[in-house]
């Protein structure tokens, strides 16, 4: 059976608006107006606020979504700016860690006699080398008490000469002789200075480390203008091996028996004793500013706890520096100064500034043996050196001397006891006599000391006035570490910015790329329209 069917009406398919507004890159769409093209791009946007603005036909709704989008944009920019402002201050936090070790590297110990020049070392030839008459030498090194005193500030020179004393004319003839001696002493070569100072075998009579005898190879010498010959135990050069310790307590570590050689003291040394500096093995000693004074007649004990601080370099606030690698070069000389520590860097900076302003240097900061030392008896030069010091106190350093990136120091607990005891005194007398018999011919031996000498002072009192004992040991093998750590890692920068965009605008990195693509498509469309009109 045949049925009559009505023909179906063919409904023409209308192109969708977003299809009209989706031109392929590189193809011309001459029939699509700019408004429709732009509207299509906005409707396809993954940013919810933008797509709602383009798709809705209500003007009120469009205004509300525009307001929401603008507020979100400003909120995102403001919060991102606040975070970036904190981020680019490079804040840090300090972490505390305590390491329990089985062994620790033993620190260096520097020992100096407070007397820089031995009285008996000055003879006619050495006084001529100093360009001072032998008569003045005898007056200078007569056993009298000096008449000056004063604090030390950056340089030990203020203890001997200052501009104020010159202006007030308070310097006596004897003080001027002393200043004249110090000026010529600063100009002496290192070999002659060493000969005038105390020797290691006279200063350190006996030394043991962890119960074993030490040798002279464990000590190194350096010259200090203020103290003369100083000797450092366990100083590490590039090829030296550090001494380690596994024990704690006073029966371990380093033990030194010291001799002052009291008879060699001069008028230049108002105090009687030793200067002891405990410092890391890689860092040179600075006895003028650090350390402890040890009195004779005592056994001084130093119990140590090791602490290390680690800082962060630029761009963080401390802007620390690895000392030992950076050098400074003077404009007036061809000599480079390599800084081993922040203190030495400051001294070298002061040295260069004095050389630039005064055309001479402070002899107490003798970091450059080839530069000319100032005459401490010359008023104008001393006043110039004081001006440099005052400039440093009121202004920033002209040199860059930041904090060290890694600094190890030792918390020191000190204690002392009278030494020697009467029985120990007898042992010391016998030991010294035996030592003389081994090193001196029998015809030159001094008689065995009597209980009381001609001056009425007993040998026990003489030993107590001349000798001292020092013990240095670890109180614990714990190593305390203070370490700076950045508050923000690099990955947190992207996390914070992404979180702000997601919270305020509801977009991700992919949506941000899509916004950039929209701008690129719009620019391409405008270029194609312009080319068509031409």
From TrEMBL:
TM segment ranges: 501-527
InterPro entries the UniProt entry points to: ENaC
Recorded topology in the membrane: Multi-pass membrane protein
Alphabetized Pfam families for the sequence: ASC
Keywords: Ion channel, Ion transport, Membrane, Sodium, Sodium channel, Sodium transport, Transmembrane, Transmembrane helix, Transport
PANTHER family cross-referenced by the UniProt entry: AMILORIDE-SENSITIVE SODIUM CHANNEL-RELATED, PICKPOCKET 17, ISOFORM A
Family membership noted in the UniProt record: Belongs to the amiloride-sensitive sodium channel (TC 1.A.6) family.
Protein name stated in the entry: FMRFamide-activated amiloride-sensitive sodium channel-like
């Amino acid at each position: 059976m045949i049925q009559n069917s009505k023909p179906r009406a063919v409904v023409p398919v209308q192109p969708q608006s977003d299809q009209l507004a989706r031109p392929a890159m590189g193809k011309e769409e001459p029939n699509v107006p700019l408004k429709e093209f732009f509207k299509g791009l906005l409707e396809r946007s993954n940013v919810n606020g933008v797509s709602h603005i383009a798709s809705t036909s209500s003007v009120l709704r469009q205004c509300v979504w525009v307001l929401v989008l603008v507020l979100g944009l400003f909120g995102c920019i403001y919060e991102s700016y606040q975070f970036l402002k904190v981020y680019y201050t490079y804040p840090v936090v300090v972490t505390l860690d305590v390491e329990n070790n089985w062994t620790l590297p033993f620190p260096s110990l520097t020992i100096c006699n407070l007397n820089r020049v031995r009285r008996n070392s000055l003879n006619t030839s050495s006084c001529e080398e100093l360009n001072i008459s032998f008569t003045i030498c005898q007056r200078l090194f007569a056993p009298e008490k000096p008449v000056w005193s004063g604090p030390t500030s950056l340089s030990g020179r203020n203890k001997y000469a200052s501009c104020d004393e010159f202006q007030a004319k308070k310097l006596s003839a004897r003080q001027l002789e002393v200043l004249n001696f110090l000026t010529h002493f600063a100009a002496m070569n290192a070999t002659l200075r060493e000969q005038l100072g105390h020797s290691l075998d006279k200063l350190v009579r006996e030394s043991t480390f962890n119960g074993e005898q030490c040798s002279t190879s464990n000590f190194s010498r350096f010259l200090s203008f203020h103290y003369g010959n100083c000797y450092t135990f366990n100083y590490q050069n590039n090829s030296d091996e550090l001494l380690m310790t596994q024990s704690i307590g006073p029966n371990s570590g380093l033990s030194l028996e010291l001799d002052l050689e009291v008879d060699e003291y001069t008028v230049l040394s108002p105090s009687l004793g030793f200067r002891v500096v405990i410092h890391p093995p890689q860092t040179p000693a600075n006895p003028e500013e650090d350390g402890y004074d040890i009195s004779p007649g005592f056994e001084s004990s130093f119990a140590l706890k090791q602490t290390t601080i680690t800082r962060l370099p630029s761009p963080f606030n401390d802007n620390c520096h690895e000392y030992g690698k950076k050098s400074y070069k003077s404009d007036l000389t061809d000599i480079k100064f390599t800084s081993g520590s922040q203190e030495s860097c400051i001294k070298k900076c002061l040295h260069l500034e004095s050389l630039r302003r005064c055309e001479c240097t402070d002899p107490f900061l003798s970091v450059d043996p080839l530069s000319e030392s100032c005459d401490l008896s010359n008023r104008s030069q001393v006043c110039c050196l004081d001006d440099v010091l005052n400039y440093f106190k009121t202004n920033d350093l002209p040199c860059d001397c930041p904090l060290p990136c890694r600094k190890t120091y030792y918390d020191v607990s000190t204690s002392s006891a009278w030494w020697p005891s009467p029985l120990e005194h007898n042992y010391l007398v016998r030991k010294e006599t035996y030592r003389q018999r081994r090193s001196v011919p029998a015809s030159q031996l001094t008689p065995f000391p009597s209980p009381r000498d001609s001056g009425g002072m007993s040998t026990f009192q003489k030993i107590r006035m001349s000798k001292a004992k020092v013990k240095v040991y670890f109180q614990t093998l714990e190593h305390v570490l203070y370490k700076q750590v950045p508050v923000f890692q690099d990955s947190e920068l992207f996390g914070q910015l992404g979180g702000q965009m997601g919270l305020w605008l509801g977009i991700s990195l992919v949506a941000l790329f899509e916004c950039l693509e929209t701008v690129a498509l719009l620019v391409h469309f405008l270029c194609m329209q312009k080319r068509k009109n031409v």
